[in-house]
Specification:
332 residues; six-stranded parallel β-sheet; Rossmann fold; single chain
Length: 332
């Protein structure tokens, strides 16, 4: 069985350098050195230690899932799909909530690695944060080198197995629907600025405005929850009273918008995004962009539990419009 010294000799680096790369140290190292060490690990079928040998074996039952907040209906549905596949495969699921804190996400990846999980699924959006992305890639690569498997949901700054919802096209679809109804001035309740999900959905809405020759949507940023959606609705309408429609970039914020509009007795179209279960039950029933959330979770867990592939597997998930009573032509 190959040793760390064997890997170092094959790669032409010191044992200390090889160890840092294999174990995901935060100390900077050139891409060329990293590639040589990773190639040596693959060529020699090196398994770092007894911990990793156990990880690579078939007797491990736990899998780790990192989400932003499992109480959020979006993540609750995704987790339902993840657990369905994991349970069928006889796995115990360890769920970690990051509450959209990148540092906490890095800590959980390390913790799950220490717990020797057989696979990890990162179910939350990617971040616009170069330092975070670099650190995450290093930690996940070290985990994979020791035999672990990784899959992600959403657009992340890494190469690997992924389930990617078509958020940009969904955003375009939402704008297209509102403009086709005759709306000219629309507001957008966006999620946190640092999330790729927010960027992609907002990019689609802006593309729809350009396509229809309409003014750029007015944007208020919120926190992907009901209360911040209600507050953002109030801010948009006080600053831009001519708005006749609002696109919320998730259903929770759309529900908050509907609640605010009901309280002030204002007639404004509202469209959401995700089609969480409550969307059909609110009054008026919520028009939204549907993503098959539970299926996305199931797809990601299936990727994570399947043998590694020489090439990254990326499963693209289309969005669809679900038209209900919350959108209508503007009052003339």
């Amino acid at each position: 069985m190959a040793t760390l010294d064997d890997v170092a000799r094959r790669a032409g680096v010191s044992t200390a350098t090889a160890s840092r790369i294999i174990n995901g140290s935060s100390k900077p190292v050139s891409a060329a050195l990293r590639d040589r060490v990773e190639a040596a690990v693959a060529d020699l079928h090196y398994v770092p230690n007894a911990h990793a040998r156990q990880l690579a074996g078939s007797g491990r039952t736990a899998v780790g899932v990192v989400v932003h907040d499992v109480s959020d209906p979006y993540f609750a549905e995704i987790t339902r799909g993840l657990q369905r596949v994991a349970t069928t495969d006889g796995r115990l699921v360890i769920i970690c909530n990051t509450y959209r804190d990148p540092a906490r996400e890095l800590d959980y990846v390390e913790l799950l690695r220490a717990h020797q999980v057989a696979a990890m699924v990162l179910a939350g959006s990617g971040y616009h944060d170069v330092a975070f992305a670099r650190s995450l890639r290093g930690k996940l690569r070290a985990y994979e080198l020791s035999g672990g498997r990784v899959a992600v949901i959403g657009r992340h700054d890494r190469t690997g197995d992924a389930v990617v919802p078509d958020n940009e096209s969904g955003g375009f679809m939402a704008g297209e629907h509102l403009y086709a109804l005759g709306h000219r001035d629309i507001g957008v309740i966006a999620g946190p600025r640092n999330l790729t999900t927010t960027t992609d959905r907002l990019t689609g809405l802006r593309r729809a405005a350009r396509t229809h020759g309409r003014p750029a949507p007015k944007v208020a940023y919120a926190d992907f929850d009901r209360d911040s959606g209600a507050a953002a609705t109030g801010d948009l309408l006080s600053t831009h009273p001519r708005l006749t429609a609002i696109a919320a970039l998730n259903d929770s914020m759309a529900v908050g918008a509907l609640a605010f509009l009901r309280d002030v007795d204002r007639r404004v179209s509202v469209i959401g995004f995700d089609d969480m279960p409550i969307a059909r039950d609110v009054t008026p029933a919520l028009t939204t962009i549907r993503l098959p959330l539970a299926d996305m979770g199931a797809q990601a867990m299936s990727l994570a539990l399947s043998p590694a592939s020489p090439d990254p597997r990326v499963e693209r998930v289309p969005a669809t419009l679900v038209e209900r009573a919350s959108t209508f032509p503007p009052d003339r």
